[in-house]
Amino acid sequence: MGAWQFTNKLEGMFKDIDLSRDFMTSFRQSKQSDQLAKSEQLRSIEMNMHVLTQGYWPTYPPIEVALPPEISSLQVRLHKCTAVACSQRNAERLAPCGPGQ
After folding, report:
1. For 40-99, what is each residue's pLDDT tens digit?
2. Which distant-in-sequence residues (6+ apart) come within 8 Å of 63 by Cβ?
3. Of 1, 99, 101, which Cα lies nearest the Cα of 55?
């Protein structure tokens, strides 16, 4: 990989990080989040969404994850909240790829 390709990927990763932060800020200020705050059970769950543009980030094989209903509910609400902003993208939800999997 050449230096310009590396720089391009790194720049794309930083844009994804900024976009992820913006999405989560927007979600936390939305009506969806206000409704969740009223539920004591859901209030204790912390969830973050990260934008990973294909081609900038390493790929992982898809894995099936059986999420508890509370987490699935949060995912659906987050997806609805960000669907408008992601209308220009081919957005899909992926299972966690972090250290907590």
Report:
1. 556 666 777 788 888 888 877 777 778 888 777 777 777 777 666 666 666 666 666 555
2. 95, 101
3. 1
Rounded to 10 degrees, what is the CA torsion of 46, 20, 99, 53?
Answer: 150
Question: Quick check: 100 pLDDT over 80?
Answer: no
For residue 54, list its beta bridge partners: 57
- Count of residues in the chain: 101
Pick from 59, 52, 101, 96: nearest CA to 74 = 96
Of the candidates 23, 95, 13, 21, the residue with the CA atom closest to the CA atom of residue 60: 95
Is pTM, for the whole model, over 0.70? no
